[in-house]
Amino acid sequence: MTKVIAKASNNELGLLVTNAGVLSLVQDSGRYGAFNLGLTNGGPADSLAFNWANRLCGNELNCTAIEINLGGLELTAQVDCVIAVTGAPMPLTLNGQQRLLWQSFSVKAGDTIKLAYAPVGVRCYLAVAGGFVIKASFGSTATVCRESVGGLNGDKLAVNDVLPCHIMLRDDNKLKQLMLAEHQQPHYTNEVVLHTILSYQQRYFSAIEKKLFFANEYQVSKHWDRMGYRLQGRAVKADIKGILSEGICYGAVQIPADGQPIVLLNDRQTIGGYPKIGAVISTDCAKLAQLRQGDRVRFEPISMSKADNIFHLNLSRFNQTQLISL
Amino acid sequence: MSTHINDNIRLEAAGENALILYFSDNGQATAVITPEISSKVHQAEQLIRQHLSAEIVDLIPSYASILVVFNLLEIDHHHLRNKLKKLLKQCDNSNSRPGRLIELPAYYSLESGLDLARIAKRAKLSVEQVIALHQGQEYRVYAIGFAPGFAYLGEVDKRIAMPRLATPRLKVPKGAVAIADRQTAVYPAESPGGWNIIALCPLDMFNAQAEPIMTVAVGDRVKFVAIDKQQYVKLGGKLP
């Protein structure tokens, strides 16, 4: 990994927001260990793209970056820095010149960075070498708007916000610009298979209901956000109506009274009383979070052990993939 | 998938990095709300925090369950199942300590309890009787969730149990002491909400700058103590 030599900006200069776009959020890898206060995880909805953005900047993976939802973010650099953008293919320009995603590049004070709207996919990540310097709340900078926690002031980015970052030292010419080979870059489509561990109240769904749940295709409804994706398709019938409120894990598939599954993501409520048929594995939750209304998903059963294997295989693939020096 | 740790604790898969423990009484499968089960939950939570802190990312204790989220880089579900089995095997009521007793001041009045009169009317009781019944009970903190610092307290006397408002209020004031069915709670911050308001509590239930951040924790016992308007204001309470 490239070593970034940088010094903290002492006058809080960084990237100035000139257009906040639809929904741009400060995120690190998420808030953990605060469930007992009723605080959810937050963190990047597509953690794979987020991790790549940080790696391309030579950062630790927990460094604070920006999650850009749908697009429209415009920034003006107040300092020299190195940035990288990954995720959904939002057209990216630096001073009006087209730039590629999935690679790091230098930005000079005064430069303008613009992200237009993604034709497919939903979320992009903009990381800066050294990470944005933002004070953590409850151990994390992750913004959860519903809780008014994280980010600059518990809310999404707004015009005139400044995201402080490290100033690159002038004599540091060693900072390499890196890119992820095209064939290694994730593809964003309108269809995703969600591998799902049968769990929680699965015993209260009949064998036939489970079969049909896995056999039918679902569409993303108009209710999709960082809390969860409400799907529509064949209604799933549970033998029970409600349960005593209990902890909800990332990816849990909740079946409310109308039978339309909801996959719960980063900003989900921590406890709830709807029956759950299972939980989608994290790799596929990240893919789901790049879908929008009308996109299609299918559930596929997976054992806990197989899910564990996939997690470790993906992690080792990520760690072993070499970035290309430009 | 399902593992029985003992007659009263069952372990199920939840997600890729999460298991869930279900607690019951006398081997019954259906979960119910009782102080005994809640105390088992509390005891198990303490044991897990003490002994498995290296493997655990987070815990969500609730009425009759604990969601255990673990670090996949430290342990896999097989090993965690075994560790939990060993750790919780001896978990029973015999050595459980009662939770801390926390007293919360509450300014009960028609001015601060917007739904007090309605509850009294429905229960065919006087306003004073409703206040006495709410105050007379010792509650348990069964769960924390819904919003930062929102603690579910149970159980409210049957006579003053009250369904949620058909149309939730857009603004429930910070500190509102409210009832929904047989549960009661103090709103930690101003928020929309559908619970029936009967009093105002001047204390901060959730303060990021304070230590501890929350006044109560799951497993604690809570009693409301009536205060008058003067005391309420003196303790920092504001009237909406």
From the N-terminal CA to the C-terminal CA of chain B, the straight-line distance is: 51 Å
The strands making up the biggest β-sheet of chain A line up spatially as 15-22-19-20-17-16-23
What's the CATH first level of the largest domain in chain B?
A: Mainly Beta
Please report the two chains with the greatest interface, counting residues with C-beta closer than 8 angstroms to the partner's C-beta.
A-B, 41 and 44 residues
The CATH topology assignment of the largest domain in chain B is Cyclophilin
Q: Biggest sheet of chain B, in brief?
A: 7 strands, mixed, barrel
Q: How helical, in percent, are the residues of chain B? A: 10-25%
Weakly predicted, low-confidence segments of chain B: none
* Gross CATH architecture of the largest domain in chain B: Beta Barrel
Pattern of helices and strands of chain B: EEEHEEHEHHEEEEEEEEH
The secondary-structure class of chain A comes to alpha+beta
What radius of gyration of chain A results from the CA coordinates? 20 Å
Number of helices of chain A: 4
How confident is the prediction overall: mean pLDDT of chain A? Answer: 93
Can you tell me the overall shape of chain A? globular
Name the CATH homologous superfamily of the largest domain in chain B.
Cyclophilin-like
In terms of DSSP E residues, the strand content of chain B is 25-35%
Number of strands of chain A: 24
Query: Main sheet of chain A, how many strands, which sense, barrel?
Result: 7 strands, mixed, barrel
Shape of chain B: elongated
Derived from helix and strand composition plus strand pairing, the structural class of chain B reads alpha+beta
